[in-house]
Amino acid sequence: MGRAPCCDKNNVKKGPWSPEEDAKLKEFMDKHGTGGNWIALPQKAGLRRCGKSCRLRWLNYLRPNIKHGEFTEHEDRVICSMYASIGSRWSIIASQLPGRTDNDIKNYWNTKLKKKLLGSTTMAGVGPPPRAPRQNHHQHRPVLLPYSSSPHSNYSNFFPGAGALLQQSAEPLTLQAQDHYMLGSSGSLNHMNNNNNGASAVQLQLLHATAAHRQLQVKEECGSGGAMIAFGCGDQQSCSSSDGTQYAGGQYVHGGRHHGKEMSFDNNNGYSAYGVYGSGAGAV
DNA sequence: AATCCCGACAACCGCGACACG
DNA sequence: CCGTGTCGCGGTTGTCGGGAT
């Protein structure tokens, strides 16, 4: 049995959105929100669109505070550094660039940034860090956090072009770098169990293959309750993602279901990865 | 002026995973 | 426990506009 289509493709409009459709969707969202169901939304809103299409349109275009246009030097560097570290996890990268969407960043990367880097160095044989099989936000996502030995982390180990780009800037992007993988401000993994229910085992595997292919694989195994792992330091962590999830002051604010994963990147403190997994009390 | 090419961006599609009945 | 519905992610494709020929 195949996957059931998410909508009646014969009765659904495709292609670019008209201003009228945008207005309808925006008006509906302003009044009712998603109502917890994107699939049913177009019908309620009087749109002949697939729910997924509505969601995409809203998240990437109609949502308030969306920023379009030129990426700044700082944004370039954040994208490069994070891509060098975590690969094409656009939603995570987007969470560090307020107003930018994952789609935006993905497009920007594919059309401009990648070429920019290619122009500064060859990418032959070099790329983002090895990527674990894709896992969605609900689940236990391995986090790859490479760090170099330089105080001003040199991404060129992973992505020479990124290093070149970053070095162009007078303002170096500082990472919390030690000669090992930095997990938390103390160098240890902060593992918090949010509901004190169900011990979570966190396994760390430091895979020091070569200097150019270091990677940290964090394997997290959670019990039935939610669990949080936190990398990095500082108490100012905050982030948001395209689904409206936000993390601020130790709490998640999520517009949807009880799930989340976030990674915060701070130029001063380095990466801070958060994961609230499962549907336990930890996932607000 | 017409055509081609290419870059940029919007949108689509398929998949994996969780929630829920 | 299982099946279905839904969500969200990331890769890919489609479309359009501008520049080059």
From TrEMBL:
Q: Where is the HTH myb-type domain?
A: 9-66, 67-117
Extract the InterPro entries matched here. Homeodomain-like_sf, Myb_dom, SANT/Myb
Identify the GO cellular component terms for this protein: nucleus
Q: Which UniProt keywords apply?
A: DNA-binding, Nucleus, Repeat, Transcription, Transcription regulation
Q: Which PROSITE patterns match?
A: HTH_MYB (PS51294), MYB_LIKE (PS50090)
The UniProt record lists the Myb-like domain at 9-62, 63-113
* Source organism superkingdom: Eukaryota
Signal sequence interval, chain numbering: none
Matching Pfam families: Myb_DNA-binding (PF00249)
Q: Where in the cell is it found?
A: Nucleus
GO MF: DNA binding
Question: Which PANTHER family does its entry note?
Answer: OS09G0431300 PROTEIN, TRANSCRIPTION FACTOR RAX2-LIKE
Q: By what name is this protein known? A: Transcription factor RAX2
List the source organism: Aegilops tauschii subsp. strangulata
